[in-house]
Structures are given as structure tokens and as C-alpha cells.
Amino acid sequence: xxxxxxxxxxxxxxxxxxxxxxxxxxxxxxxxxxxLASLVSFSVGTAAIAIVWAASDRVSPTTLRAAPSWAWLGxxxxxxxxxxxxxxxxxxxxxxxxxxxxxxxxxxxxVIDHFGLFGLRAEPVSASRIAGLVLVFAGVLLVxx
Length: 145
Fold this sequence. Notes:
Elements (H helix, E strand, L loop, with lengths): L3 H28 L2 H24 L16 H19 L1 H22 L11 H18 L1
């Protein structure tokens, strides 16, 4: 069950990501503002995480003082993604938007792995990883047709 749990959780998170874009796009449509929709999304998400943290974890925020400065940028990446997805989903369709986003994530992941960036173990680029990237981008073209 050790290997299965993160796979199941990631699958469920992926379902949530697919639902997040059209949900936020509706907020943007109703409000007329992608940025307001993104703010609401992050506010609701922040409240949910705060409740779960307070109920179950409660590690002191002071432990974060030891984090390197670049570690604080994760929220910015998330904000850019959420705002972009709310904007792009109604224009491209959720499947195309997600395929393009996943393609971008995989290219970045291969580079991050190859150089061992962000304190991760280096995982060299291989022919099979490059082939996988090509197949993902071929999939983008197929989904878009």
C-alpha cells in the first residue's frame, strides 16, 4: 500500500486540477475578472489547508525560517497557473489546456531532474524520456484536432 497511496492521491489531485480550471473560469466569467477568480480560488484553498493543518499537523511556521529564499516561490507558480488556467480553459478547452500545461510541466521536470535542481537527486535525460515528451506533445496535437 506504500506505493499505491501516493498514486491514488495523485490521481485524485489530477481530477481536481481538471475540475479547477472550469470552476475558476466560471468565477472569471461571472465576475469579469480572471484575477478576482484566482484570488477567490487561492483564498478558499488557503482556508481549507489552514483548517486541515490546524486540525492535524500544527508544525510551527517558525520552522520555515530555515528554508532557502527560492523555496518561497511555489505560491507564485501556483498563482500563475491558476490565473492562466482560468483564462485559457474556456478558450482552448480543458483537455487542450491541461495537455499543454502537462507538456510544459514535463519539459521542466526533465530539466530539473537532469541537473538535480532544487536539491533533488540528478536523473540524467534519456532517450526514453525525450520520446515520452515527444509523445505528450503529439498527444496535444491529437487532442486539439
